[in-house]
Amino acid sequence: MMRHPALFPALLALLVATGISSLATGPMALNWGSLTRLSQTEQLVLLHIRLPRTLLCLAVGATLAMCGAVMQGLFRNPLADPGIIGVSSGAALGAALSMVLLAPLSATLPAWLGAGLTSFMAFGGGLITTLVIYRLSRTPQGTSVSVLLLAGVAIGALAGGVLGLMNYLADNETLRDLALWQMGSLAQSSVPQLLLVCATAFILLLLLSRQATALNALALGEAEARHLGIEVQRLKRQLVLITALAVGICVAAVGIIGFVGLVVPHLVRLISGPDHRSLLPLSALLGAWLLLLADMLARTLAAPAEMPVGIVTALLGAPFFLWLLLKQKRGTGLA
To answer: Residue 138's beta-bridge partner residues?
Structure first.
């Protein structure tokens, strides 16, 4: 099942250590040697700012990485990613429409329901985008990579144009929120968002783990999967719906964070193999760790100011994506 059985506990230990470091990282240094004697201000910073942010970071990173692994399995292509093929852009567009055009309605709703409205709109945008891209990229021979990428570029451009219009229509406060949100930021984390994203990550892992064997069969080809008793079309509909919902919730909570779903599953596949029974949980762990590391860099590189975490993941992920393209161009094959 797993090439390296020690990989899971090693990643888990690394994640715990990085999480502890994240709690201590920031403008106010916490003295862990006197953890039981933290001042009231330090306790407030730890429990109400850094702990929720760290947990949100872990949940978002795990969710995006698992969604990337599923989309790569669904399209049978390692270049598939919620950001690269435009799913994140579609979810962002839905959330932006909610934040700007439905702001009067959200103001009359409870906080948790207002956040739910934005998540629902983001889910709708991500779902529509996923369905369009899936239909466009289908060919009798399988998924067309060129159509996949071009469709993602086109949808990203369209979403960018409408997002620009939303920026023009927004007031000053909403405009600032939109600007930070489009670059991906964990600074505005709230308890309702944290609970929603954590629940999403947990449920996603449970649901996708049940489909791991079916994803392995789908990797052999649709015809082979049908011979093995897999209801391919039903499986695809379920996976599209689940990933669109999860990506939409993450985008609504923290904005656009790219490349996590591209880089993490590919690295895990290179190390532990393509078996989704191990690929999914390992991707969740590595995705959580990578986004946590990126968030720590975002908080420290420009201190005392804070850099949007989406910028850090883009700087880390873009060269990796170019390497993947060059590798595929040379015809060496991808794991």
So the answer is: 143
- Phi, psi of 277, deg, nearest 5: -65, -30
In a domain, 79, yes or no: yes
Would you call 117 helix, strand, or coil by DSSP? helix
Query: Which residue has tokens 């791991």?
Result: 212
Maximum separation of any 2 CA atoms in the chain, in Å: 66
* Lookup: tokens for 142: 């399988």
Does the residue 36 lie in any domain?
A: no
Work out the pLDDT band at 248, boundaries 50, 70, 90: confident
For residue 219, give Cα distances in angstroms to 3, 274, 312.
Answer: 18, 9, 32
Q: 149-162 as b/e, with b when 16 or more CB fall inside 10 Å? A: bebbeebbeebeee
Q: Residue range 290-313: average pLDDT?
A: 87
Residue 143 DSSP class:
E
Distances (CA, A) of 315 to 65, 239, 297, 310, 320: 17, 29, 12, 9, 9
Rounded to whole angstroms, how far apart are CA atoms 189 and 300? 18
Hey, how many other C-beta atoms are within 10 angstroms of the C-beta on 180?
A: 17
Digit-coded pLDDT (tens) for 199-210: 999 999 999 999
- pTM for the structure as a whole: 0.85
Which CATH number characterizes residue 283's domain?
1.10.3470.10
Paired strand residues for 142? 139
Integer distance in angstroms from the first to the last C-alpha of the chain? 16
Provide the domain count of the chain: 1
The CA–CA distances, whole Å, from 253 to 159, 177, 195, 201 equal 18, 12, 11, 13
Its domain, for residue 317, covers 52-329
Residue 138's SS3 state is strand
Q: Is residue 294 part of a domain?
A: yes
SS3 63: helix
Residue 37 lies in a domain: no
